[in-house]
Amino acid sequence: MHNNVFYENVDYLYQVRTDLEAVEQLKKEMAEYRLQEKSLKKGIISEEKSIQDEIAQTIKRRKNEIEREYDVQIDANKARSKSVNAKRDKTKTKRIGERFSNETAEIQEENRQYQVEMRTLFKAKHIPTFARSGFFYSLYMPKRISEYLVMILTILIVFAGVPSLIWLLGKTVFFKNNPGMLAYGSVLITAFILFIITLVYVLIFNSIKVKNYDTIKEGRHIRDEIEANKRQMRAIKNKIDKDKDDSQYGLDKYDDKLLELDEELNEISREKQDAMTAFENETKPVLIDEVNDRRLPIIEDMKARLHKLEDDIALLNEDIKNSSLAVANNYGAILGKEFCTSEKVDDLIALMEDGTADTVSEAIAAYKGAGR
Predict the structure, then answer these.
(1) Rounded-to-integer distance, Cα 286 and Cα 59, Å
(2) Taking Cα atoms as reference points, which of 227, 245, 253, 230 lies closest to residue 99?
(3) pTM tops 0.90, yes or no
(4) Measured distance CA(55)–CA(49) in Å, rounded
(5) Which of 103, 148, 170, 351 could join 186 via S-S bond, C-beta 3.0 to 4.6 A?
């Protein structure tokens, strides 16, 4: 029977081509099904992620709204506490100042009397006002370390700063156009200025200190007493600053208000924590259910379509397998695997249709003889 096939005419090849094209069509359908399957799986994954994103965003938004409501109250409470604290500090500072004034009133009055005494003493001797200054006593009758430091700094400024300044001015202004005169001219100007400063110092020394030595010495004593009183006042100030007992400043109303605000803040914080717990236990599941109820049917529909498509693919795959086996059994053993393709069968049909061959065997021989 098989040998008789080789003597078949072109109709046999038409049937072969039809069966091969049927298999190819089934494979094309399978490719389309696979694309649909891939698209559905991707769509399901995307939709599931979108649902999770919406749930996360919804929960975050609602949670932030609840937190924001309480945070506004907390911020307002802290602002009031800050305002009360500022008023308390201001009142405390004022009353510390009043306490300092009260505790040093006698010392301050004593210093005021010393200053009046010194003014009167110097005025009676017609001594210039500047001779009562700390700078004068630092230069002409130093006693304390700070006064010696002022004297040393003044000497450095006069005997180091002035020459340096004169040299700089000489280089940039006085002898700018005559550099050869810079050293000589700067030395002369410096010597002249230092001479004038020294002369003024000596004149003041002789005309004020030497001439009014007893008065200047008495002024020294008065300044020492004033400075001793200032040290005593600083000691009182340090003692007051270190005193941690605020009860003497009448700050009870501020402390009571701060305690009230602190209790209010604790209550708001507790309410916030309770609200967040209720959100997690009650509101959050409701939000999740609301999104799922609205969007899960879409996924279920997509999964149902995917399940049906997978069943169709399984059936189609079975059809392809059976059809391929039928082609292989019906034609492969006879024509050979080489000629069980649509392209080769089309070539054989063409040879028979143009009269090159009358039978299948002749068409195969002609095809091979043509070196194809």
Answers:
(1) 10
(2) 245
(3) no
(4) 10
(5) 170
From residue 149, how far is each of 16, 228, 328 by CA, in Å?
A: 122, 19, 118
For the beta carbon of residue 137, count every other beta carbon within 10 angstroms. Answer: 22
Contact call for residues 309 and 15 (beta carbons, < 8 A): no
DSSP summary character for residue 104 = T
Tell me how far apart the alpha carbons of residues 341 and 326 are, in angstroms, rounded to a whole number: 14
How far apart, in Å, do the first and last CA atoms of the chain sit? 28
Phi, then psi, of 176 in degrees rounded to 5: -60, -40
Which stretches of the chain score pLDDT less than 50? 1-3
Nearest C-alpha neighbor of 303 from the set 45, 122, 121, 9 = 45
Please, what's the b/e burial string for 276-298 (b: 16 or more CB within 10 A of its CB; e: otherwise)? eeebeeebbeebeeebeeebeee
Two structure tokens written together for 266: 């604790």
